[in-house]
Design a protein that fits this description.
Radius of gyration: 28 Å
Largest sheet: 5 strands, parallel
CATH class of the largest domain: Alpha Beta
Distance between the termini: 57 Å
Shape: globular
CATH topology of the largest domain: Rossmann fold
Low-confidence stretches: 1-12, 135-152, 417-424, 427-432
Strand order of the largest sheet: 2-1-3-6-7
C-alpha cells in the first residue's frame, strides 16, 4: 500500500494529532501537550482525522477507542500502514484491557486509560517524541535504521534469523509487551536487550530478572520494594525491580516459574502501571516496558491451569520465537568465527584455526543447548587445543542421544502393520479386534512414557507427540491413574 501524498509546507511545525469525540478530553489533552511545547491539531471523527493526516505530518497521534463514525483501532491500523513514522497511542476506557491489547496488536506503540493520568500521559508523549524522526537532532536522525545494529548482534544469514531481525526492528518502536519464546540457550536475553537498545527507552535502565531464582516468600518485596519495618528483617526502605527499571525495560526471564499468587500481583502492576511496596499505604506509578521469556510452553501451562490466562494475554501482545540452532545450521560458520574471535581477543591470544574435521563434527551435532552450548564447546576446545588449531577431538562433543519416543499414532500404525492375522479369532472381524489391540499399544506407550518422565504429564505429552488435553483424555479412557 503506497503512502498518500501530503501537501506539507516547508518548515511546517511538527505537532500532535488528538482524535476524540469528547470536547472536554480534547481540551485537556491540548492543554497538557501544549505545556510540553507541542502544537496540537484536533479531530472528533475518523473522517476529520484522515483529512488532517493527508495534509500534515505529526510527531504523535492520540486517538480514542470509540469515535462517532468508527473505531480508533481502524485509525491505528491506517497510521501504522500509511504513516509508519508517526507513533500512535490509544485512549481506552479504564479497565478495558482487551481494547488496550487490541490496539497494541494493531500497531499502537502504547495506550493510556480514562480518566487520563497526566503523569502517565506525559511519560507516554516523551517516549513517542523519541520515536519521531522529525524531532530527532540531525546527528540522531542520520543514524542507520535499527536493523543495522540488530544485525551486528543476532548473527546469521539464515531465513529464520533474517525474519527475526526484521521483526525486531519493528518491535523496537513499540512500547507493547513482548513475549520471547525459545529453547534454553537460543539467546532470548540478547533479543530482549536488542529490543531495549533499539527503542525509545535505550537511555533508561535494562533490568533483567530470573523469576525462577527468587524465593517465593521474597518475590513481592523484590518486584515492588518494601518500607522499613514492614516485616522482620526490613531494616530500611528498598526499591523494587519495577522502580529500578523506571523509564526503561524490565525483562522477566523464566516467567513461567512465577507462583500463581505473584502472577495476580504482576498482572495488576502491568495493567495499572503502578506498584504498592510492601508496607506502603499508597501505590507508586511506574513507567516500564515489560519483556518476558521462558523456555517452557506457556500456552500449555495456561491450558493446564498453571499460568493465568489473563496474564498470558497481557504479556503476549507481541510474540517472538527465537529459532534453535539446529534449525539454522547454515549460520554455524559465522557464529564459530565470531565466538573464536571474541575468545582470542579476551585472552590476548591468536585466533586458532578450526580444522575441517572439527567443522564437520559441529555441523552434524544437534546442539540441545543451542548457541550457549556452542560457546561452551568452543571455549573448552580453545583452552585444550594445540598450536595447530582445533580438531574434532578437541571439541569433546557428547555422544549421540537416543532418538525420541515415536508418537502414539506412529506406534499404533507400526503395530497394526505387523499384526499377525493368526492372533485374531476367526469369529471376529479384523476391524473389531484392531481397536483393542491398538488400545493396548497406547496403554503400554503411555505407561512407559509416564515412568520415563517421573509421571510429569506435561513432559509425557510432549514425548508422546500429543497435546496435554489429548493425554488427559487417553488416561481417562484407558483407566490409567
Amino acid at each position: 500500500m503506497s503512502t498518500p501524498s501530503r501537501n506539507i509546507p516547508a518548515n511546517a511545525p511538527v505537532c500532535a494529532l488528538i482524535v476524540d469525540d469528547e470536547r472536554d478530553i480534547r481540551e485537556l489533552l491540548v492543554l497538557t501537550l501544549g505545556r510540553m511545547g507541542l502544537k496540537c491539531d484536533t479531530a472528533s471523527s475518523l473522517h476529520d482525522a484522515r483529512a488532517l493526516l493527508r495534509h500534515n505530518q505529526y510527531a504523535l497521534c492520540l486517538t480514542d477507542m470509540r469515535l462517532s463514525d468508527g473505531s480508533g483501532i481502524e485509525l491505528v491500523q491506517e497510521i501504522s500502514q500509511l504513516y509508519a513514522q508517526t507513533p500512535v497511542a490509544m485512549i481506552t476506557a479504564f479497565g478495558n484491557q482487551e481494547a488496550a491489547v487490541g490496539a497494541l496488536k494493531a500497531g499502537a506503540f502504547d495506550f493510556v486509560s480514562k480518566p487520563v493520568d497526566l503523569a502517565v500521559l506525559r511519560g507516554l508523549v516523551q517516549h513517542a517524541l523519541k520515536l519521531a524522526p522529525s524531532l530527532r537532532p540531525p546527528e540522531e536522525a542520520a543514524k542507520p535504521a535499527p536493523s543495522g545494529a540488530v544485525a551486528s548482534r543476532l548473527l546469521g544469514q539464515s531465513t529464520a534469523m533474517a525474519e527475526l531481525r526484521a521483526t525486531l526492528a519493528k518491535v523496537a518502536r513499540s512500547q507493547a509487551p513482548v513475549y520471547i519464546a525459545g529453547e534454553s540457550g537460543v539467546g532470548k536475553e540478547l533479543v530482549a536487550r536488542t529490543i531495549h537498545d533499539e527503542g525509545a527507552r535505550a537511555a533508561g535502565p535494562f533490568v533483567p530478572v530470573n523469576c525462577g531464582a527468587i524465593p517465593a516468600e521474597l518475590m513481592e518485596s523484590e518486584f515492588f520494594g518494601h518500607r522499613k519495618g514492614s516485616f522482620t528483617g526490613a531494616h530500611a526502605d528498598k526499591t523494587g525491580l519495577f522502580q529500578a527499571a523506571e523509564g526503561g525495560t524490565l525483562f522477566l526471564d523464566e516467567i513461567a516459574e512465577l507462583p500463581m499468587s505473584m502472577q495476580v500481583k504482576l498482572l495488576r502492576a502491568i495493567q495499572e502501571k503502578s506498584v504498592r511496596p510492601v508496607g506502603a499505604n499508597a501505590e507508586v506509578p511506574v513507567d516500564v516496558r515489560i519483556l518476558s521469556a521462558t523456555h517452557k510452553n506457556l500456552a500449555a501451562l495456561v491450558e493446564e491451569g498453571r499460568f493465568r490466562h489473563d496474564l498470558y494475554y497481557r504479556i503476549n501482545v507481541i510474540e517472538l520465537r527465537v529459532p534453535p540452532l539446529r534449525n539454522r545450521r547454515e549460520d554455524l560458520p559465522v557464529l564459530v568465527e565470531a565466538i573464536l574471535t571474541r575468545l582470542a581477543t579476551a585472552q590476548h591470544r591468536p585466533r586458532p584455526m578450526l580444522h575441517a574435521d572439527a567443522m564437520e563434527a559441529l555441523a552434524h551435532y544437534t546442539f540441545p543447548g543451542n548457541v550457549r552450548e556452542l560457546e561452551n564447546i568452543l571455549e573448552r576446545a580453545f583452552a585444550l587445543a594445540d598450536d595447530d588449531g582445533i580438531r574434532a577431538a578437541d571439541l569433546r562433543l557428547p555422544e549421540a542421544r537416543p532418538a525420541p519416543t515415536p508418537s502414539l499414532a506412529a506406534q499404533a500404525t507400526a503395530a497394526a502393520a505387523t499384526l499377525d492375522p493368526s492372533l485374531i479369532d476367526p469369529r471376529e472381524s479384523a476391524s473389531s479386534a484392531l481397536p483393542g489391540f491398538i488400545e493396548e499399544i497406547e496403554r503400554k506407550a503411555i505407561e512407559q512414557a509416564l515412568a520415563d518422565n517421573r509421571y510429569n504429564k506435561t513432559k509425557t505429552a510432549a514425548q508422546l507427540g500429543i497435546t496435554f488435553r489429548a493425554l488427559r483424555y487417553k488416561l481417562k479412557k484407558l483407566g490409567i491413574d
